[in-house]
User: Fold these one by one.
Assistant:
Number 1:
Amino acid sequence: MLVGLTGGIGSGKSAAGNFFIELGIDVVDADDLARAAIAEGTHGSELIRERFGNDILDHSQQIDRKKLRKVIFENPEEKQFVESIIHPEVANAMTDFIKNAQSSYKIVIVPLLFETDSQNMYDRVLFIDTSEELQIKRASARDGVDEANIRAIIGNQLPRNEKLKLADDIIVNNAGLDKLMQSVSQTHNFYLSLCNE
């Protein structure tokens, strides 16, 4: 069984993913795969440098993901170009992960799962839900980004009520890590029961 785990910015997707890993489940994060696709020394990194020049690099000469995000946020053509580099690499890495995963079910964390209309690739879609206020608070504390930026990111994504309708399973993450861990554990047991049917 393949589970797609998603949620808005600051919802706690990674924390939930880590709890599933602790329970022995194979988990991969599409964001990590995207990062690896343009890491220093990759063909993807060279193509992006050629296109945007050294302005796109950070102080350690790596591609600055914040700068790149800003560029593609403002220019649909550049977004297409960057996606044409990253998406095939992510798809290949994901195929390898699915083929090699050993746990009873496996999880792929996909931040924009509904926005990319990829929910049909998964047997179940698990949505990590949280209030917008908490999303803003967590994301700004984690990324050092101001509230206006986070609201713009949220505004660019499918509305929360739509995601709630599309998800098969929902974990509400408004009450801290202990509660999240409990909810993950319950969901884990539910998924194991589905695998054993």
Number 2:
Amino acid sequence: MDLFEKVEKLVQKTGCSYEDAKLALELTDGDMLEAVIYLERQGQTAPQGGTYSTRYENQPQYVPIAGQNQRGPQQTDWEAGSSKFKNFCRKAWHVLSTNYLIVKRKGELMAKLPFWAGLLILFGSMTLALILVVVSLFFGFTYSFEGEKRDKMQEANKVMDKIQRAAESAREEFRK
């Protein structure tokens, strides 16, 4: 290997300048290992392969890991939490929009309210809403649920049927 090739290789391995590499080789009579040791002692070598640390530092040589935010772990936790909350809200809205409270009187449809509307009425004036439901049961109104999850709706409708039968028997007792 001639001097030029050795200088090139030394520059590649140590990250020093061509002048420093040539000087080191001349001082060590062309011995590559001795030249590297000489450059290290002079502090003229750059670390190869990057640095390693457990501490987060925002430096350009760090490559972000897929899914990790460059702003740090606290921001990543916040974003993960807000993403979970957004997904929960989406699912809740879907359930509240695709399931309905059906109000009938003598078999005729009086109202078909999405759950979100029923909740607004209930939370708007819970006492008044409960009184109206109880009184309406005595006047022959029936309540049932419709929606995507038919098995869960059937369980709720069974409960509503029991309440309606109790209201009918109370109404019959009142008439007597």
